Queue: 3 jobs
Job 1
Amino acid sequence: MDVAILGATGAVGQRFVQLLAGHPFFTVREVAASDRSAGRRYAEACHWNLPTPLPDRVGDLVVKPLDAPLDSPLVFSALPADVAGEVEERLADAGHAVSTNARNHRMDPDVPLLIPEVNWTHVEAVAAQRARRGSEGFIVANPNCSTIVLTLALKPLQDAFGLERVMVTTLQALSGAGYPGVPSLDILDNVLPHIGGEEEKMETEPRKILGTWRDGAFVDAPVLVSAACNRVATADGHLECVSVDLGLDASPDEVTATLRAYRSPLRDLGLPGAPDPVVIVRAEPDRPQPRLDRDAGQGMAVTVGRVRPCPILDYKFVALGHNTVRGAAGGAILNAELLYARGLLG
Amino acid sequence: MDVAILGATGAVGQRFVQLLAGHPFFTVREVAASDRSAGRRYAEACHWNLPTPLPDRVGDLVVKPLDAPLDSPLVFSALPADVAGEVEERLADAGHAVSTNARNHRMDPDVPLLIPEVNWTHVEAVAAQRARRGSEGFIVANPNCSTIVLTLALKPLQDAFGLERVMVTTLQALSGAGYPGVPSLDILDNVLPHIGGEEEKMETEPRKILGTWRDGAFVDAPVLVSAACNRVATADGHLECVSVDLGLDASPDEVTATLRAYRSPLRDLGLPGAPDPVVIVRAEPDRPQPRLDRDAGQGMAVTVGRVRPCPILDYKFVALGHNTVRGAAGGAILNAELLYARGLLG
Amino acid sequence: MDVAILGATGAVGQRFVQLLAGHPFFTVREVAASDRSAGRRYAEACHWNLPTPLPDRVGDLVVKPLDAPLDSPLVFSALPADVAGEVEERLADAGHAVSTNARNHRMDPDVPLLIPEVNWTHVEAVAAQRARRGSEGFIVANPNCSTIVLTLALKPLQDAFGLERVMVTTLQALSGAGYPGVPSLDILDNVLPHIGGEEEKMETEPRKILGTWRDGAFVDAPVLVSAACNRVATADGHLECVSVDLGLDASPDEVTATLRAYRSPLRDLGLPGAPDPVVIVRAEPDRPQPRLDRDAGQGMAVTVGRVRPCPILDYKFVALGHNTVRGAAGGAILNAELLYARGLLG
Amino acid sequence: MDVAILGATGAVGQRFVQLLAGHPFFTVREVAASDRSAGRRYAEACHWNLPTPLPDRVGDLVVKPLDAPLDSPLVFSALPADVAGEVEERLADAGHAVSTNARNHRMDPDVPLLIPEVNWTHVEAVAAQRARRGSEGFIVANPNCSTIVLTLALKPLQDAFGLERVMVTTLQALSGAGYPGVPSLDILDNVLPHIGGEEEKMETEPRKILGTWRDGAFVDAPVLVSAACNRVATADGHLECVSVDLGLDASPDEVTATLRAYRSPLRDLGLPGAPDPVVIVRAEPDRPQPRLDRDAGQGMAVTVGRVRPCPILDYKFVALGHNTVRGAAGGAILNAELLYARGLLG
């Protein structure tokens, strides 16, 4: 199936190109980006800065402008929020399936905010969305990168014990800010204790994701989240210090065993990007670490460690995931793989 | 007054040397360190790695072994915990006042765990300790570096509103691990989500510090602390993301105004190392930052920012302080200045 | 004397503001910058990122546009090269003394490319420049930051032994690229082996600086320079590995002694920004280092170490200086102090 | 063929384990290390810090002491120099083929200092060495990591134009110092302009490597090398700024074309670790970079860029290679693959 990538020259756009190289379902046929890049060969328009080589075939594509009509039935969007909203809406109305990483449509009432292992049933909302649009097109959205890591770690606990309150402090990687993103002078020998809009997303998105689609509407999960977000000098891999208040009593061993035993509901679908296990539990006292654990499961797994009681809530742990793979391009590709497997792509 | 420095060649020992250069009360006359250094000139025994020059006079001192008798009435200790306990005990019994940064005696029932601005009244325990020893000597201890930053930020809130629960996640600097400390390969493009013993200290020490000395014993404050400690790639400056549950209702403006209005009880003592203000509140959304704020108040102030409501506890904020100045050598020197001003040094 | 700063909001502009705080000769009365900043209070227009506080008085100045007439007789320019040329020319023609850090006029035939300790006699060109302009105004230029560090280290050798060939490889700091400058994703765990235009500057500027002003024209020194420039992950402090071919034979001890004995020709002028010594020679095998030595002499000295024979040219050594102090704002201020002391400012 | 790894728990030792996982010729059967580790399971004795998982089979091996007899005919040595000399000597005398990364025997008169693509004919010295020992055992040595990168880039130029003088300044990665190696406090926001012994190695080893084995002795190549070595904050990948004086005249295009056209003499041997091409030439102005190019050719290729005239010698360029793969474990494995293919292993 032919696919297009919007915002293909940026940090997340490059990850899409990298992760789709040799993909068994999808072939990149079109790339589109802002006027600054449009009309140029992709290889020239983009400042490729991944250590794997840029695939030749994609490098030779001519970048299209964002308002060009597209041929590909499936569109991945890595657009920045200031342009994503309108462009994605237009493409969905025109019949394309749009798997987006942008924040604009995440909270729309009929747009699934999708982490397949957590809420694959939310794809049922696609039918409602198609009806609204009067088109075969639709949008599914990837949550915020920090939210994805957090929610994947929370899901097994919610299933087993219920989940009432979550305190999370993040130590987020530079690639989460895109490119050029964070100036080096701001982060060398430093921490930035603020990421615009991030805490708000982490405090709202998990409620939708962990909730249900029922009677034609999303019903939020009754979980309260408090987030404090920091930028640190790591290239990739968001690390999150989490404390949770569970609905039921649970021993430390039960909590650890529950995380460890968790199996993805996607296991039997044969999705190429689905990690197994999806949550890796490490026993060492000093794991997970960004450099050592971000690539676990090809960057699609979440690693959890340091599960221990919390003197205030019930349990504390540390979670880590790759923010531009699991938390962005890889997540949006997995969303599309799910749609493909469920017969929702044309 | 002549002073000695124990463990003078390490990271904190060097800070003692630096901060005592030109001190109006104290003159460094003796340095002592482990057998590896003993007998050598200080300038040769230590791998000086501060950007200010090593004072010549100290560089020429011959390093004494740790079991040597000392002439100085006041002794600063930057010893590692595996040797500090016994050495400090012996010196106190022999009549020296010991202001230590080591953890060994912090929780002793008659040793003040001192942050002068927070609990200067705890020096009353010195009399009890002297009585126990049958000596003029005694020990006062500096809390853990992360505890100091946290507790200074909490004190104004405790005074104004009462303090019930504190959740804190730290992003701690490399110098907190001493020298050679953290290998560069472990921290480049990485975070270490574990610091041995640190969370336990942060969960217990504030209770003693914020408590009272009454009827010959310390009574803990009834505050519950939950800590998650991380090492990040900053040289100096511990940053802490804090959520607090207050005893009384308070508006965001009241909380900020209370922190801003806080005045050190030491203001009239004329202590050279006492910062004024002791807590600096910044209004910018992205402060405090380690590189920009760690040197505030000559490294002795704590900077607080991002005061905002917490969806789970009452308020969240970010606090930052210099871990080897305020959190170690500078703090221990301020402790000694207080003892000096209170007539407790000889 | 009242001074204006052009390009005041950038990285070098902020250094001007910082270094001129409390200056005995000069008072900042005007700040000017691009249209994006013009009309706003300086404190709001600039993203102040130095660890010392922004002086209140300057923070309250309203930023002027670059085409505004200025009242100050002396103007410091931290403008980027795309606008500096014309603006500085206009101000000099209008009677202002312009001490610039921009590259545009460095090689002009009557503009001194000034490092006061090296070529203070080049100020004689000011008279010729004034005559050309028909105005009391003129421009003096600061060399490129890497050139300054190199040339200060070479001058004592040129004086004592003559200088024929210089090979230099630089490891330059991030602040040399301005702000926002180098994206953090480009430099974390990385080196950039190219800095646009830098090698060309290092290969040409020293010839003018080390040359002479004779009969109304600059005569280049007959020294050949080959440069390779790299950007590394340091905040401040350019480190340079240098090999030199001297005109005369010299023993290693003579070379070291010559560097160590070098005395600035400015010593008796009482210039507040002139370091003494101007070249610091360190004997340790692993110095100079950016973090430890960049602030030597208030950031105005150059530190040299590892003087040793070169198997191909004559001697190798390592030189280091602070690129935004000695190599930019501090250098341009010292240039103005020299002009002031020589009676060339009004 | 069964192999043993000496010094298996260190940084280079771990690379051996990683790179030998699934190797078609060699299977790791024994690991040996210092007394601190001996007797423990490898997984427990080593602080594994590579992002790929430790192979289970190796993790379960019990670490042998260094003086234990070994069963494996082939031994890889990642021992530190203070113990390598004697241990390797004993094993070679006892009949083992030893492929070492240690420096001790590099300059021995009958020990090949081997970079297979450069001087594979030096394996002829093995016969002489066996004769001396009166044993089937022998030692072949890997050059210093910086030397390997440099010499691979020089070899095509030597072949085509002759090579007279080489000036090189290195920017070397942290992993070159082993683990724990460089303390983080020494390198954050810093450069270390000295690496003990490194310059001497770079100035002598290439002469042997680029020379010939003739009439039972190594004859040095008549090339003069001057090196300046620096440690920078990169994890892996030594970057080297090189200037060369060639024996023949050559145009810039000829130099570039020669590097680009270079083909490894090993191409037809089918060695699993041999990269093709062995030298990659990049045309971008800002390559090679450590993060982007160190993994080229599975970390076994050397990347060259910025080929340009040098005002003093003939040409300048930048070379980069992976110091613990090509420059250490991977190089020593390739050496053994060559021995295997040439029938020199048992």
Job 2
Amino acid sequence: MRLYTYFRSSAAYRVRIALNLKQLRYTAVPVHLLRGGGEQFTDAYACVNPARLVPVLEDGEATISQSLAIIEYLEETHPRPPLLPSAHAGRAQVRSLALAIACDIHPLNNLRVLRYLKSTWDRDDAQREEWQRHWIRAGLEALELRLAGNADTGSFCHGDSPTLADCCLVPQLANADRLSLPLDEYPTLRRIRDRCVQLPAFIAAAPGAQPDAE
Amino acid sequence: MRLYTYFRSSAAYRVRIALNLKQLRYTAVPVHLLRGGGEQFTDAYACVNPARLVPVLEDGEATISQSLAIIEYLEETHPRPPLLPSAHAGRAQVRSLALAIACDIHPLNNLRVLRYLKSTWDRDDAQREEWQRHWIRAGLEALELRLAGNADTGSFCHGDSPTLADCCLVPQLANADRLSLPLDEYPTLRRIRDRCVQLPAFIAAAPGAQPDAE
């Protein structure tokens, strides 16, 4: 398997965690999203992903974009260890938590969005950081309420082993850290993150541990 | 089953299509996102969804937010007719197409985002519409390239029956129509949409056909 990745992409980070949890070996193909205007805009990369985004997983004939689609694919093709619980309601909860991050927080803080805010509306660094913090806070606040009040929450987002939800939570909190957003108001999220980052799968997936890290 | 919905929410629209395709009966609980500052901000709704978003599906003991998590849940609990193909690679493609809409287009054009742009940065109607069109065009352009160049594309996004991807595409194109965005550059998407909207499941799910439509 080959993973088109960028060390700082939190969507790629999710997939790296999932691959590691399932102990799947892969070749990392770094796509530098900033260098030379962005390697994702080359003609070669258009053939890999017309949407010009990372990550993309190549597995035999299959070329898959979108981090959650990749992780669901890995879950179906390599079921052990499972990243989704077995019961229908639990699977729905885990997917819902993951999507609450992947749809409600991360897309607003994407590199391409920050670029638009700068180039089209001349938003300065402080304004763009406040924009990012605003959406992260809104999303984390709702997540904290959900997890703190749910009997299914364990050492991880759902029960006592990592799931798809944890694959999304840890990269999102890493982004919060980069923006110096205090996590005091999200004790459940912080507790789960602190547990996750002790695991080798999460450690090896971290941005700083990637071959393309700067 | 009870679906918390708003006629104009494109995420709720996706779920309504899926429920109809599977011929599942449900009670619609309208949540008016604009009236009185937004019914999603009531204390009562906080118990349903701390994230203050629609849709939410209640099915027995399960309360599920996030449209794609709901549709995956319906797919697992009511497998016929399937909204995902059977082969791993095909399932990944359909999920990837759905996520390309749910993560890369829709979150940027959400009501809460448009409100931020107006209240915090004083962006006027024209600027906010151009913002919306920008992200829709970027997303649809990539989707058109993917679908036009893929042998799996049929009368629908994947093959000749509707899938999760079509549940997402049709509401997104309805949003494009509301913004008077021409679809000439996306002939494949338009052809698929034109086929979908002939089906009773899509007709009954449309915003204008809802009990809370204005």
Job 3
Amino acid sequence: MERVLARDVNKHLGKKILIEGWLHKKRLLGGLTFIAIRDRSGLIQIVVQDKGEVEKLRGMQVGTVLRVQGIAVEEPRAPGGAEIHDPQLEIMVKVSAEPPIEIDKPLSHRPENLDTLFDQRVIGLRNLDEARIFRIRSDLLRYIREFLYKNDFVEINTPKLVAGAAEGGAEVFKLDYFGQEATLAQSPQLYKQIMVGVFERVFEIAPAFRAELSATTRHVSEVTMLDIEMGFIHGHDEVLNMLQDLLYSVLARVYKEHSDDLKVLNAPELVVTPHFPKYSMQQVHELYQKNTGIDTSSEIDLTPDEEKWICDYAKEHDGCEAVFATGLPESKMKFYHMKGEAGTAMSADLLFRGIELATVPQREHRHENLIEQMKAAGIDPDSPGFSHYITAFKHGLPPHGGCGFGIDRFTEKVLGLSNVKEAILFPRDINRLAP
Amino acid sequence: MERVLARDVNKHLGKKILIEGWLHKKRLLGGLTFIAIRDRSGLIQIVVQDKGEVEKLRGMQVGTVLRVQGIAVEEPRAPGGAEIHDPQLEIMVKVSAEPPIEIDKPLSHRPENLDTLFDQRVIGLRNLDEARIFRIRSDLLRYIREFLYKNDFVEINTPKLVAGAAEGGAEVFKLDYFGQEATLAQSPQLYKQIMVGVFERVFEIAPAFRAELSATTRHVSEVTMLDIEMGFIHGHDEVLNMLQDLLYSVLARVYKEHSDDLKVLNAPELVVTPHFPKYSMQQVHELYQKNTGIDTSSEIDLTPDEEKWICDYAKEHDGCEAVFATGLPESKMKFYHMKGEAGTAMSADLLFRGIELATVPQREHRHENLIEQMKAAGIDPDSPGFSHYITAFKHGLPPHGGCGFGIDRFTEKVLGLSNVKEAILFPRDINRLAP
């Protein structure tokens, strides 16, 4: 007999079918024993009456792998509108121990202590709500890629073992590479710009590594990054528009295709317009001061509170909780960004639900200007980590721009989680290298 | 005026259009100057007659980024069936140096010395044939993912910074992780098995790291791996069938959608059937000995020459150049494989065009048996690198199996390249950490 998935039981009403899955829950109700079986498609409820079958359930632990034959019956109150009657239970894999963490509670009942959550992650992920998070994350990746394919982007895989730190400065992991010093790539920045010279439009979704010394809800040492780069742009706006269209299409799609899951997870309502409002840094500072009395005009960046504030403001004022902060100051620039006018960089921050998802600059594509900017940043353009990069510019790169976009943070914000680590299967931070 | 891509020029015949791209080639023919402009869609030929315009081309280097306005004209002999007449050339980005490597030769004319090829990779990739390789690679990834989504697989991202070496034994890169020793993941083996307990069917496409001390055409220290794992299987064959269907669908699709590219690259003709032939290791040894006189019966693995031979044999005998070698000996087993009958493992090698693409085992899913096998392999099940893994089994994992499948090697074999590094944008080996 072929296995039927939990979600398909209602297509077999009145027939004897075979279910396979994990014992997820057992309960007694009005003299009847109900069990819930979990498989990859969800839960199916099984009503056990026969004494011999009830006896099999005695002491049976959650996680036990079962094969159940029984009759599919309509039951509007059961998940999926169907349940199984007159079951015969067969143990496929016996489990002797109680689970180390409850897996039948909604997310709001998760342990307060995230360390407990992550210590017990292996079993905790069997919670249906946890699984929802990562199923949605998988689909976010799919939607992103489908948008990019449609827009002529080519997927690339660039090395994570590199000779130098691409962006200088920030903390990098170092290792011995057959006697040489190698670092783990913090981003594919240099490679994706090189690849603009080949495909114009490229993207990569891959791990990136940062030896973050801070132990906060924001800091992890391994992230999954979407990196995008596009050439032959006719102004910085073209990059912003591409990212805006990507984000809008992915958000609209996930809220459409996962509306039930998002409701169960208490994700916020989506408030976006196809065109995201733009505010210059200076405008944000002014609006913020006018409304809060706090003067932030001397900050080179938006303060965390301003990031939250401007998203709330745009949500109310423009009906869009995604917003671009433009005209970032030159002092925040990296050497490969293009200078803008009057002390600004050709760069904008994309903010969503109170947090920066990506910095979106146009790059400096002119060979000579780039070399000047590298020298000003104290980087030797002829050093082994950069000479190949420079070669791409020497032999012609068109105007281009792009961004790195954190998949973990994006998933966190889509779902309204409180910590980026909750959107990562097995997070890594300064204190955590397992599981 | 909006930019028209090279591939679309033939849709604008008779009209004045704008082209943007790189100067790819210049030549004089019968008193006329022809230039080819490269953009992300391919090449477009431009006929330059006007003396002022011809003058602009003097000394202009390949790689110069150009904006060209001119009339789209039908020309059956030109690539794409069209060319541009009466052009006005405008330099967007000036290039002063000659390219360090010729980019206008077919692949068969690449430098003999692969070191030269990889040293000049940044510019060499602008060769249209090189770009074809990596555009096809991007599409192979897309086809693979689309097949897996259709078959209910969930994409996961597992950590590459791990506490212990997942598979023991083999060479690993080590690094300091805030005072602890971490290793770079050689595979997501343990994590994907854990995730079977959540989603039943999972996959990941991600970098994997191996400190390979050998300097051969096969060995690289960073690879892109497709990892698959599926639960609730009813026998080893179910895993083999899934992989067979995946491979068949991806191969059929790439040969259909990229037939022109594959012809240009001199890729071999595809000879596959929907069902791949299966030969036991013993049968392979016997057939091989019968045909070559060489006795390999004492080998625990197929020899490289046998791998080639059996693929050729199956191609001729079964009309299929993909083949499973089944009944691998128990002595080749890893601790997490399931034992088969009579000294064999429940494991098979998938061979394609003379090389092993993947080892495809059923896993040992029974908690107690697994612990026994770990101990026999000298691994402490309670050690920090393995305790979480064991927890997944303790709380119920169904029968499952899967494989790791090298994307680089697969791309190499699809295209008939001679070295896996040719299928990697920026390969890494014992001697190479740049570009």
